[in-house]
Amino acid sequence: MRVRLLCIGAACFCAAKPTDADLVVFEFTGQVTSFDNDNGLWNGHPFAGAAVGQSFALRYEFESTTADGNGNAQVGLYVGAVASMRVTVGSAQFEYDSFSPNRIQVLNDFVGLDDYTVLGVGTDSGDFLHTELGLRDSNGTTFSSDALPTSLVLSDFETRFAELSPGNSGTVAGGPTDSLRARIDNFNIVPVPGAVVLALIGLPMAAWLRRRVS
Ligand SMILES: [Ca+2]
Ligand SMILES: [Ca+2]
User: Measured between alpha carbons, how far is 32 from 41 in angstroms, rounded to an integer?
Assistant: First the structure.
């Protein structure tokens, strides 16, 4: 009986330790502050009708255990960390179906500042979007290392923005660029549904097993 319970316990432990447990969902919301379509690059895009004052939301899921790909102790570079990303402008939505590239970059005390940036470049049903989130603390007091943060305090950063571009050139210098810029006003960590369910199932099960085995 005890052996069987231990086997069940081991199975539960394995089931409660999926990669889901390492996923974190960040959501930023704010407002569109500028929209430029001088080159017509937004034409036919889901965000073609964007306008200053509309609501803005950026939500992404990332793998919190992604390894730092930059050996510099002041630079954390987490390439491919973003598992999914959705951008909403007013009632229009862009949900990435492919990413190339995506990354999260953390700067700690780099030229005196702390900085958190997220880049997503890719498509949704053939439409293209270059998304960049930028948070900057010019006092350099927010981060104490270049580790990938799993929570943030928005008020730590005096500069908070998102910038979008519809062209393949993104924000690369020299190419035509139309852009949408939003300021970020709010931040939430969204519970990952799978992890919540597993935690709810896993904790009572573990307690029950402890009682039975002891
Ligand atoms: Ca590093
Ligand atoms: Ca710092």
Answer: 18
**Residue that has been written with the tokens 């569109």 in this structure:** 32
Domain boundaries, the chain: 22-191
How far away, in angstroms, is 139 Cα from ligand 1 center? 20
Outline where DSSP puts E strands in the chain: 23-35, 55-63, 75-79, 82-89, 92-95, 98-110, 113-124, 127-137, 159-165, 180-190
Instruction: Give me the residue label for tokens 């099960």.
Output: 205
Beta-bridge partner residues of 26: 60, 189
* Distance of CA 74 from the midpoint of ligand 2 (Å): 9
Per residue of the chain (214 residues), give pLDDT as tens.
444 444 444 444 434 444 577 999 999 999 999 999 998 889 999 999 999 999 999 999 999 999 999 999 999 999 999 999 999 999 999 999 988 889 999 999 999 999 999 999 999 998 999 999 999 999 999 999 999 999 999 999 999 999 999 975 444 455 668 999 999 999 999 987 765 555 555 555 555 555 565 5
Across 120-143, b (16+ Cβ under 10 Å) vs e yields bbbebeebbbbbbbbbbbeebebb
> How many angstroms is it from 162 CA to the middle of ligand 1?
24
Ligand nearest to the CA of 108: 2
Q: Which ligand lies nearest the alpha carbon of 138? A: 2
